[in-house]
Automatic annotation (TrEMBL):
EC supergroup of this enzyme: transferase
Domain HAMP: 189-242
Protein name in UniProt: histidine kinase
Enzyme Commission no: 2.7.13.3
UniProt keywords, alphabetically: Kinase, Membrane, Phosphoprotein, Transferase, Transmembrane, Transmembrane helix, Two-component regulatory system
Originating species: Nocardiopsis aegyptia
Catalytic activity, reaction form: ATP + protein L-histidine = ADP + protein N-phospho-L-histidine
Cellular compartments annotated: Cell membrane
GO cellular component assignments: plasma membrane
InterPro entries: HAMP_dom, HATPase_C_sf, HATPase_dom, His_kinase_dom, HisK_dim/P_dom, HisK_dim/P_sf, Sig_transdc_His_kin-like_C, TCS_sensor_his_kinase
Length: 513
């Protein structure tokens, strides 16, 4: 934006300066020509008086010496021409002086002088002019003309003088341009600073930070009004999201107890059913109440995930260390081998407090839906700017045409229609990753025979480690180790999380017993 503004301002300033400098340059050339013409005309008048006296007294030699000295002093040839346009006395050889006069195209000026008239104002001499400036003065008294004095001014010296003046004019003209260019940068930054703050705030909002507020006290009035409107818009969106999440959470909580009572009442009908048809209908009713219960729990879990805003710098290895023991314990109960390949010291920018939850859900998704026997978590740095975090299994996987659809909310694979879930989890995880500046991709996993496996690949921006973040990670690690030692982890939360494979299955992470 600053470059565009400067690109617009500087050419306009150049045109304005040129609009002033070009007329001044023209006036300078006219003035220099006029000054030289008037000066040489005065000299020609003096020589005309001397020539009349010398010609009457027959002292042409004295006149020739005077003209020669003038030639040496001013580098300007002078000659006395007879009424027949023949050279009488000159400071140059006859042929040379005639070449100068005739090449100038000013023989008419000589003829006017021989006719007893003075020529008018001369043409302006420019730096590129090649014709001499000819000044002619009649010799004689009253109407009797005895000849003419011809002064031929070379255009080289006069053109060089004009060119030097133009050079100084150009330097002086550069001063306002330089001052404008120097002032344009801070001025442009001042004008665009509110836009820069709005841009940074917009970026923060797209990352999920709805607590951002832009200072609307500085800058032009129009931008201050725009900033106030932006702050109002963010506040309205934040309030709407908070009300939406609050409604979903409260509604889910309020429905849990009535639904649990309904489920208990339906289950208590079992002893009173006497026919097979009634028992089958009773089983269907119980299953439906369980599906509704899981739906409520999924909505609660989704609300918790969506409430994550902002990003934190975290060390991936430290986050995985706090959870790998639970993953392996859960894998043992399901017949899975759990392996990790995560180098230490790789820090990434991840959803605030959410990377561990994301990995929990992806791991739970893998062991519940893959129908395989192995899960691997890998981390691969990709240069200084990003790192790829992969959760891979050796199960059935998803066809390529279903992978893109798997990131849509409420989508479920046709092969998992009978699997518990609502189709929210993976889409929410993908949104969280995007909000932190990363991306989530679905690929093949650990190929085993004809089974391609399934892989969730998360690419996150790398960042520098901060001392306070290191303390937080170590503290979290110690806390989780202590919990593992006392057996306080609820494996059901790991086993039945919200994020399913494209919604192929989200678990009952809070089912009342």
């Amino acid at each position: 934006m600053i470059r565009r503004l400067l690109t617009l301002l500087l050419p306009v300033a150049f045109v304005l300066v040129a609009a002033v400098a070009v007329p001044i340059g023209t006036v300078i050339a006219h003035q220099r020509t006029q000054d030289v013409y008037v000066d040489r005309l005065a000299d020609a008048s003096r020589f005309a008086s001397l020539a009349r006296t010398a010609l009457e007294a027959g002292r042409e030699d004295t006149l020739a010496q005077e003209l020669a000295r003038y030639r040496e002093l001013y580098d300007t040839p002078v000659a006395v021409v007879s009424p027949a346009e023949e050279l009488v006395v000159g400071s140059e050889p006859p042929g040379r002086l005639r070449e100068i006069v005739e090449s100038a195209g000013e023989i008419s000026a000589v003829r006017l002088a021989l006719a007893g008239e003075r020529p008018g104002a001369p043409a302006t001499v420019w730096p590129w002019t090649t014709e001499a400036l000819v000044v002619a003065e009649p010799i004689g008294r009253d109407s009797e003309v005895e000849g003419a004095i011809v002064v031929a001014v070379s255009p080289d010296g006069l053109g060089a003088s004009v060119l030097r003046s133009w050079g100084w004019l150009a330097l002086i003209s550069l001063v306002p341009l330089v001052l404008l260019a120097a002032a344009a940068m801070p001025l442009s930054r001042w004008v665009l600073r509110p836009i820069g703050r709005l841009d940074a705030a917009t970026t923060a909002v797209t990352s999920g930070d709805l607590e951002v507020h832009v200072d609307a006290e500085r800058g032009p009035p129009e931008l201050r009004r725009l900033t106030e409107s932006f702050n109002t818009m963010v506040a309205v969106v934040r309030g709407a999201l908070e009300r939406q999440r609050s409604f979903v959470s409260e509604a889910s909580h309020q429905l849990r107890n009535p639904l649990a009572s309904l489920r208990l009442a339906v289950e208590n009908l079992a002893p009173h059913l006497t026919t097979d048809t009634a028992r089958e209908a009773h089983a269907v009713a119980v299953d439906e109440t369980m599906v509704m219960h899981r739906m409520l729990n999924s909505l609660l879990a989704a609300t918790r995930l969506e409430s994550i805003t902002g990003t934190d710098a975290v060390e991936v290895a430290a986050v995985i260390d706090t959870r790998v023991s639970r993953w392996r314990a859960l894998g043992d109960t399901r017949g899975f081998t759990v392996a990790t390949d995560v180098p230490a010291g790789v820090w990434v920018q991840a959803p605030a407090g959410g990377l561990g939850s994301i990995l929990d859900e992806l791991f739970s998704n893998a062991i519940r839906l893959s129908r395989g026997s192995r899960v691997e978590i890998r981390l691969r740095p990709e240069g200084p700017d990003s790192a790829r975090l992969m959760v891979l299994d050796d199960g059935e996987g998803l066809p390529e045409e279903e992978r893109e659809a798997a990131l849509a909310r409420f989508w479920r694979s046709s092969r998992h229609q009978n699997t518990e879930g609502t189709g929210l989890g993976l889409a929410i995880v993908a949104d969280l990753v995007r909000q932190s500046g990363g991306r989530l991709e679905l690929e093949e996993g650990l190929r085993s025979g004809e089974r391609p496996g399934f892989g969730v690949v998360i690419t996150l921006p790398r960042t520098e480690a901060r001392e306070d973040d290191q303390h937080d990670e170590h503290g979290e690690h110690d806390q989780h180790d202590e919990h593992d030692q006392h057996g306080e982890h609820d494996q059901r939360d790991q086993d039945e999380g919200v994020a399913g494979r494209g919604g192929q299955g989200e678990g009952d992470d809070g089912t009342e017993r």
